[in-house]
């Protein structure tokens, strides 16, 4: 026993030592890389001043992240640039709710979202973070045009879209579709339905998880934020009253719904615009315009294994079927108003002919009606809460839609959960 403990202690000391050595080595090599890349002219628009100190915290001895190419390294450096528009909005409001908008490559959608955000009352009080899956000029141009609040752009450096011939992108020896590894030697594990990974499909869940970890635990601007963070997507139309309503929901939540984990801008049924009642609603967590605080994030983060090993490529279904049920206290509720303040307008065209419940996008215009009541906060603090019990939806026991069977994806996902945590003793010293 004693022997055992002794060797464990030695083990720990050795690990710490290794950690310090590796951190130093990484620091030096990053320095060399940054010196080198700073002297070569940039060809892809990433030519802003990157002479920032190196963030040593993002390294750990346990990490086994894929080898980065030059472009990936550049993106990671770009992520350390300070927000734009600090000259216009030098101070964030004391109790601001940070907004994170995560996007891929649908510029005509992003245009609509950004235009809707420009009309949101109170938006200038907060910081907008745009998290990109892949690097696309058209998307950047839209974000660079934002003048209505502080904006910070971040890019997922391990996005499959950033790697052209190696994991997390496609590598030459990867198994494809229903390849049989025993008949034709190739790399990869099939999912529960026999299909091999598709980088385009896995990128969504990777991006969401990378973004969550980075926003809560990585970014200098937000890792100390102790309020709520609101998450929206590139195909969510945001009503002018969204921010003020959200502030009300967040302030009412502790009293009106102490069991609610989050606040939502929209009903969890994406086709509903709300009931229009004089009442607050508590229901299962939705995936449009959800906001929660760091306490909830810590709970989610503790379930990294559940999240990363569940064979479904959808982040939201993964949350509903494994992460939330693993909290163990029945459904995970969220609080919202009786009228929606956000609408999911994507997939339009697939659901045509279903009447006015589906917004459609046409030449960059969404034919969504914004009434006067949607322009000002329309939640009353004296309202009671109506709770929906036994709602339908994905639950514990659901096996997943697949698409997430490859060990490399699962490990990359776990690495994202560790990248800002391991090695904490030495990073504390080096800070
Ligand atoms: C964060 O939200 C949860 C769920 O609503 C709540 O229980 C917790 O007290 C909140 N934490 C802080 C620090 O406000």
Automatic annotation (TrEMBL):
CC annotations in GO: Golgi membrane; Golgi stack
Annotated pathway: Protein modification; protein glycosylation
Cofactor(s) named in the record: Mn(2+)
GO terms under biological process: oligosaccharide biosynthetic process; protein N-linked glycosylation
Domain of life per record: Eukaryota
Pfam families named among the record's database cross-references: MGAT2
Binding site for substrate: 133
Signal peptide: none
Bilayer disposition of the protein: Single-pass type II membrane protein
Catalytic reaction annotation: an N(4)-{beta-D-GlcNAc-(1->2)-alpha-D-Man-(1->3)-[alpha-D-Man-(1->6)]-beta-D-Man-(1->4)-beta-D-GlcNAc-(1->4)-beta-D-GlcNAc}-L-asparaginyl-[protein] + UDP-N-acetyl-alpha-D-glucosamine = N(4)-{beta-D-GlcNAc-(1->2)-alpha-D-Man-(1->3)-[beta-D-GlcNAc-(1->2)-alpha-D-Man-(1->6)]-beta-D-Man-(1->4)-beta-D-GlcNAc-(1->4)-beta-D-GlcNAc}-L-asparaginyl-[protein] + UDP + H(+)
Record-annotated disulphide pairs: 175-186, 257-260, 308-413
EC number(s) reported in the record: 2.4.1.143
UniProt-annotated location(s): Golgi apparatus membrane
Gene Ontology molecular-function annotations: alpha-1,6-mannosylglycoprotein 2-beta-N-acetylglucosaminyltransferase activity; metal ion binding
Transmembrane segments: 12-35
Residues where Mn(2+) binds: 235, 344
Keyword Ribosomal protein among UniProt keywords: no
Keywords in alphabetical order: Disulfide bond, Glycoprotein, Glycosyltransferase, Golgi apparatus, Manganese, Membrane, Metal-binding, Signal-anchor, Transferase, Transmembrane, Transmembrane helix
This protein's record includes keyword Methyltransferase: no
Family: Belongs to the glycosyltransferase 16 (GT16) protein family.
Name of the protein in question: Alpha-1,6-mannosyl-glycoprotein 2-beta-N-acetylglucosaminyltransferase
């Amino acid at each position: 026993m004693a022997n055992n403990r002794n060797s464990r202690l030695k083990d720990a000391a050795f690990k710490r030592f290794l950690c310090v050595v590796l951190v130093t080595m990484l620091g030096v090599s990053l320095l060399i890389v940054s010196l080198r890349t700073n002297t070569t002219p940039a060809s892809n628009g990433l030519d802003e001043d990157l002479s920032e100190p190196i963030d040593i915290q993002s390294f750990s001895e346990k990490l086994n992240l894929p080898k980065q190419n030059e472009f990936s390294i550049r993106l990671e450096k770009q992520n350390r640039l300070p927000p734009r528009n600090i000259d216009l909005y030098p101070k964030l409001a004391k109790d601001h709710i940070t907004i994170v908008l995560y996007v891929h490559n649908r510029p005509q959608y992003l245009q609509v979202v950004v235009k809707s955000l420009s009309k949101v009352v109170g938006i200038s009080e907060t910081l907008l973070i745009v998290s990109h899956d892949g690097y696309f000029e058209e998307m950047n141009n839209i974000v660079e045009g934002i003048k209505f609040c502080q904006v910070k752009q971040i890019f997922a450096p391990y996005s499959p879209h950033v790697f052209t011939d190696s994991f997390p992108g496609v590598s030459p020896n990867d198994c494809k579709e229903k390849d049989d590894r025993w008949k034709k030697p190739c790399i990869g594990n099939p999912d529960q339905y026999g299909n091999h990974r598709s980088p385009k499909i896995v990128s969504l869940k990777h991006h969401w998880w990378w973004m969550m970890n980075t926003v809560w635990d990585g970014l200098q601007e937000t890792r100390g934020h102790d309020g709520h963070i609101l998450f929206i997507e590139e195909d969510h139309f945001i009503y002018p009253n969204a921010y003020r309503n959200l502030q009300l929901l967040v302030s009412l939540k502790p009293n009106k719904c102490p069991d609610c984990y989050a606040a939502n801008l929209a009903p969890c049924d994406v086709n509903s615009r709300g009931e229009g009642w004089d009442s607050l609603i508590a229901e299962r967590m939705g995936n449009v315009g959800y906001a929660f605080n760091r306490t909830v994030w810590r709970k989610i983060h503790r379930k990294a294994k559940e999240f990363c090993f569940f064979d479904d490529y959808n982040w939201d279904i993964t949350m509903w079927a494994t992460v939330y049920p693993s909290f163990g206290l029945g459904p995970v509720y969220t609080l919202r108003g009786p009228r929606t303040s956000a609408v999911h307008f994507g997939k339009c065209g697939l659901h045509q002919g279903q009447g006015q419940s589906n917004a459609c996008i046409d030449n960059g215009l969404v034919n969504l009606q914004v009434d006067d009541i949607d322009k000002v906060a329309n939640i009353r603090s004296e309202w009671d809460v109506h709770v929906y019990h036994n709602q339908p939806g994905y639950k514990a026991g659901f096996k997943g839609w697949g698409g997430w069977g490859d060990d490399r994806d699962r490990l990359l996902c776990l690495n994202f959960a560790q990248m800002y945590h391991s090695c904490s003793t030495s990073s504390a010293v080096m800070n």
